[in-house]
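Protocol step 4 of 6: structure prediction from sequence.
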Amino acid sequence: MTSHRLWIPARLRPGDRVAVVAPSGPVDPVRLARGRQVLTEIGLDVVVMPRVLNRRGYLAGSDVGRAADLQEAWCDPDIRAVVCARGGYGATRVLDLLEWPAMEAARPKILLGSSDITALHQAFAVRLGVASCFGPMPACQTLGDDEGPEKDSLAHLCSSLFEREMPAPVAGDRVIVSGHAEGPLTGGNLSLLAALCGTPYALRAEGHIVLLEDVGEAPYRIDRMLTQLLQAGCLDGALGVVLASWVGCGDPMGVLVERLAPLGVPMIAGVPIGHGTPQFTAWMGADAVIDTESCSLTCLFRDPATAL
């Protein structure tokens, strides 16, 4: 992660055009249609990139096609945000296919996604110096469920995406290490962060608050991935730790506390960001605050014109 503050893209206004891309796993067209309608109903002009519904095994089409949709959307001056349809697997495979100079020359805009999209959050921070949005995706349960979007998650997403709004603090359910921490937020899905070790996009926690979450990982696998990050120095210098959602992970809290509490920084747990519902939104690269008195994480914003 870059050591300087990241540029926070201008947030959205009603009527702004956003593009849906699929850089990872194959997309369910029914869920995508529901999620697209939700984005339309909150006032956005939604376009779906041409290769989103492609499928190649466990990927949403070829690596070249997925990278092309992402780059075209990012470089289109009429697009104000790039929304990832879902996670799964595959984002790491497109990183070497993106034309980073062209991406850097484009106007910064919002990237929204979570889970496997952690790879893009890390790469966009390193390559483009741009903060990005870790939150619900249109072809996933939170927005694309047949019973409609989860209301609290949608409200928090809107307050994170749209200008003149401030997202409310996201409360956890327990304090692991007391204290107060303030600094830019980084992290994301633990499996992806472990997979990025040894690459140009590896987690660099120094001077940052680190958010960690995962899904469907047994405690011993979480132990292994945390040990990898610790031994690689990825967590050195962290200002604080936010333990977010651990859906389908059994009871991982023992190993999380055992491996991370010795960092000696403020740490809260049970923050509903990542997987499951509700699923709140966090800005990776924006300043954030851990307040253990209220057991909460709050994302802050600067005017993009004054961001470094």
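Step 5 (inspection) to follow. The chain has two domains: 17-161, 170-306.
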